[in-house]
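Notebook entry, structure prediction.
Reason for the run: the old model in the group folder had no record of what sequence produced it. Starting over properly, with the input documented here first.
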Amino acid sequence: MSVYDRSRLLRWRMGWLPGRPIACRCGHPHASRAHLLSCLRVAIRLNIALNTRPNPLDYVLNQLPRKLPVRHSPSLLSRWSAWWPVVCAILFEIEQICQPDEEFSPAASDTSGSLLLDKLKPATTVHLSTLLSIAE
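New structure, fully documented this time:
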């Protein structure tokens, strides 16, 4: 997880996003958490039920593994390959709405989520013959 993703995730979970009353880009006068979740169609984008509790975004974040699995889990990788880039994009959009005057660097704008997904992928095995051919 990049430092930008981690920062957005923590600020969302701590209730700091949105940080202050601000108008939404859709024209709604107050971009509250509830408004942002419906305006950005979070449940639809994450392909989960609208009435998910506590809310669709927090439901998905509650599913994050607490530690990296010891063994490769295809179902875990499949689920997070679908969810994580969408979560990163949603949190980035929320940050853009909350900080409309901010210019984001390319690194801060990257919502691929590849750092977390790479950790969930199986470790590649290197055969001894490959190592020997490289050493020659």
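Summary: The chain is about 55% helix and 0% strand.
The old model has been moved to the deprecated folder.
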